[in-house]
Design goal:
Blueprint (H helix, E strand, L loop, with lengths): L2 H17 L5 E4 L1 E3 L12 H16 L3 H10 L11 H10 L2 E4 L2 E7 L5 E2 L1 E3 H14 L2 H4 L9 E4 L5 E2 H12 L4 E5 L13
Parallel strand pairs: 1-7, 2-6, 4-9
Antiparallel strand pairs: 3-4, 5-8
Helix pairs in contact: 2-7
Length: 194
């Protein structure tokens, strides 16, 4: 857990103990939902997979209208929907959406082996409301010497990035190949010892 998160949790715990407040920190799993970030340069795994598979399917079907609309709505490195097909193909190629010999493939980083858990943003909001209405710090702190100020929120079910990629591929209807670039990082491995 990164130091700023730990500092925030400990600050809430200290306020609760010193000032009798009722702060609870929530630690969500990976969230997805409306207004997600689909930027191929900065997005998280799920929106990146959705966008890559969508653009891959558009390339498969030569649906340049949807490609131009997509790139215009969310430019990639200043390449927008007014760019030429050649410019768009070059930037898509750079981000692993490849069309070679009339075959389309999507290149993903790593091996696909790391496991991730995902939660819909509205479900996270519901969990937070439930916690605000039903959970009191005093009840969490009864199990001394351990004082809990944070609560993990998730589904309890995870899957590999590879499994997720094939689910997204199926739902989008992309029929091309998924390739894995093991020279790129896999991302943070899941740590079960915490």
């Amino acid at each position: 857990m990164p130091l700023p998160k730990i500092a925030g949790i400990k600050t809430c715990e200290s306020y609760n103990l010193q000032y009798d407040t009722n702060y609870i920190c929530v630690m969500p799993t990976n969230l997805y939902g409306p207004n997600d970030n689909y930027d191929l340069e900065k997005s998280h795994v799920l929106p990146a997979l959705i966008r890559k598979m969508h653009l891959g399917k558009c390339l498969e079907t030569d649906n340049w209208s949807d490609i131009f609309n997509d790139i215009d709505k969310r430019p990639i490195e200043n390449v927008n929907g007014k760019a030429s097909e050649k410019e768009i193909l070059q930037i898509l190629n750079k981000y692993g959406i490849l069309k070679e010999n009339n075959k389309v493939s999507v290149m993903l980083w790593g091996t696909g082996a790391p496991r991730r858990e995902f939660l819909y943003s509205d479900d996270m909001a519901d969990a937070c409301i439930y916690l605000m209405e039903k959970v009191d710090f005093k009840n969490l702190s009864k199990s001394k010497p351990v004082i809990n100020t944070h609560i993990n929120i998730g589904t309890g079910k995870d899957l590999t990035i590879k499994e997720l990629a094939f689910k997204v591929k199926e739902i989008i209807g992309f029929s091309g190949e998924i390739k894995w670039d093991a020279s790129k990082p896999d991302g943070t491995p899941q740590n079960y010892s915490m």
